[in-house]
């Protein structure tokens, strides 16, 4: 619930505050830019005003602005606020006004915080809570209802944040994703299959500030157009969280290689395929300025993802391999996929052929995998990577 007449949104960030002054300033700047891009993409009117450790969005649509802010990486929470002069009288008057026009029953509490030097105000946060509480009480009584205070678990909390320049009043704190603003880290290639896991891995990287370079390996007869469409569609959804960053998908023609692997390899087929995909990713990382390659893998989730097999796939490349889902359970990944709205498209059946052998290796050695894989596997990886088609998911 927003206080009636709210005309701005208070946006709070978290970890940015732990940085040095200089880093903090540049991260705040990036946060403001990214939020501004999300507002613009959604056609929400709003101008951003940066203040120490918070941002304010001046807007005539606080509901939409809160939604936009709480989809922006780096934001811990946001509230639609009304503001008044930082005096006890003005605060109590506004609390009474909010109660008169916006309170519709239940227990209540006033929660106040005072910030700035002691000399900035001639009253304490306890004064705001007691006098503000009395103002709300009287305003409820004036409607003919019986006021009930509950300081432990109130139905409605009237929050007051009193700062030297203004006092801010709000009823709700909506949680954001946290993390760091996209663009405060170097980019990472993400092997994006369009399944449940890899879009979640991509989202987690964005959340920690890394722009992503999505790479989809077209598996030919083992994938097909629906498979490809699914990957591109998840990239489009991910792009909405960072509209000012290019989320174009590099679609790499991997069909011939998959066919070779399916013909020539049995138990180690999937490991050779993962090693091929990492090599494709490494090549694209080199040409796009990305610092590593990420996958959606989690320890033990599939036979190719046993801890032993992850070690075997890792050594295919010289660049770092990031696995944001490494220790997450499938249920947690699925829950996250639903929350970020990639789950639906990730579970569209694609009816493609199965690449996996019926008895896959679960404890491979690097030597065995190397010995069995085609001698030109990595050369082919580089060659197909160089022929990647760049697909803008928004077109
Ligand atoms: P996902 O749900 O992400 O597809 P998964 O559990 O199905 O994961 P695998 O199919 O074994 O796992 O793939 C492991 C990882 O390899 C994926 O998370 C993804 O990062 C990458 N990957 C798999 N297939 C492709 C593909 N066709 N193109 C790009 N990356 C892929
Ligand atoms: Mg998959």
Count of strand segments: 14
Silhouette: elongated
Helix content: 25-40%
Largest sheet: 8 strands, mixed
Q: Return the string of H and E elements.
A: EHEEHEHEHEEEEHEHEHHEHEHHHHE
Structural class per helix/strand content?
Answer: alpha/beta
State the end-to-end CA separation.
37 Å
Residue-averaged pLDDT, rounded?
A: 95
Strand content: 15-25%
Bound molecules: adenosine-5'-triphosphate, magnesium ion
Number of helices: 13
Low-confidence parts: none
Whole-number radius of gyration?
A: 26 Å
Explain what you see.
It is built from 13 helices and 14 strands. Helix 7 packs antiparallel against helix 8. The chain is an alpha/beta fold and 395 residues long. Strands 1, 2, 3, 4, 5, 6, 7 and 8 form an eight-stranded mixed sheet that branches. Strands 13-12-9-10-11-14 form a six-stranded mixed sheet. Helix 4 links the parallel strand 5 and strand 6. The two termini are 37 Å apart. Bound molecules: adenosine-5'-triphosphate and magnesium ion.
Please give a handful of descriptors for the protein shown.
single chain; 395 residues; alpha/beta; eight-stranded mixed beta sheet; 14 strands; 39% helix; binds adenosine-5'-triphosphate; binds magnesium ion
Question: What topology does this entry show?
Answer:
Layout: E1 8-13, H1 21-41, E2 47-51, E3 54-58, H2 62-69, E4 75-84, H3 88-102, E5 108-114, H4 125-142, E6 156-162, E7 167-170, E8 174-175, E9 188-191, H5 197-207, E10 212-218, H6 225-239, E11 249-253, H7 255-264, H8 269-288, E12 293-294, H9 307-314, E13 321-322, H10 330-339, H11 343-346, H12 366-372, H13 377-385, E14 389-391
Helix pairs in contact: 3-4, 7-8, 8-9, 8-13
Magnesium ion (MG) binds next to loops.
């Amino acid at each position: 619930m927003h206080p009636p007449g709210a005309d701005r949104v208070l946006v709070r960030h978290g970890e940015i505050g732990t940085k040095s002054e200089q880093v903090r300033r540049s991260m705040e700047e990036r946060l403001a830019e990214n939020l501004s891009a999300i507002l613009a993409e959604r056609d929400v009117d709003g101008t951003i005003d940066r203040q120490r450790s918070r941002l304010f969005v001046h807007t005539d649509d606080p509901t939409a602005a809160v939604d936009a802010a709480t989809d922006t990486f780096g934001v811990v929470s946001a509230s639609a606020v009304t503001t008044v002069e930082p005096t006890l009288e003005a605060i109590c008057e506004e609390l009474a006004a909010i109660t008169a026009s916006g309170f519709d029953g239940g227990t209540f509490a006033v929660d106040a915080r005072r910030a700035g030097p002691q000399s900035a105000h001639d009253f304490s946060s306890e004064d705001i809570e007691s006098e503000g509480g009395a103002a709300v009480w009287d305003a409820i009584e004036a409607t003919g209802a019986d006021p009930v205070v509950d300081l432990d678990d109130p139905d409605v909390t009237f929050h007051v944040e009193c700062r030297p320049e203004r006092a801010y009043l709000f009823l709700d704190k909506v949680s954001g994703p946290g993390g760091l603003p996209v663009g405060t880290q170097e980019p990472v290639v993400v092997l994006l299959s369009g399944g449940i896991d890899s879009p979640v891995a991509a989202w987690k990287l964005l959340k920690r500030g890394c722009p992503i370079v999505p790479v989809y390996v077209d598996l030919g007869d083992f994938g097909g157009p629906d498979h490809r469409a699914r990957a591109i569609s998840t990239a489009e959804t991910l792009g909405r969280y960072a509209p000012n960053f290019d989320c174009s998908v590099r679609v790499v023609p991997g069909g011939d290689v998959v066919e070779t692997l399916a013909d020539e390899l049995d138990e180690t087929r999937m490991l050779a395929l993962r090693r091929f995909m990492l090599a494709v990713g490494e090549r694209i990382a080199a040409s796009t300025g990305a610092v590593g390659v990420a996958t959606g893998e989690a320890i033990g989730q599939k036979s190719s993802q046993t801890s032993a097999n992850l070690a075997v796939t890792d050594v295919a490349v010289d660049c770092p391999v990031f696995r944001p889902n490494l220790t997450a359970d499938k249920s947690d990944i699925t829950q996250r996929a639903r929350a970020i709205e990639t789950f639906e498209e990730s579970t569209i059946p694609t009816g493609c052929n199965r690449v996996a052998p019926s008895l896959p290796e679960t404890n491979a050695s690097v030597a065995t995998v190397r010995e069995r894989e085609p001698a030109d596997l990595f050369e082919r990886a580089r060659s197909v990577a160089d022929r990647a088609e760049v697909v803008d998911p928004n077109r």
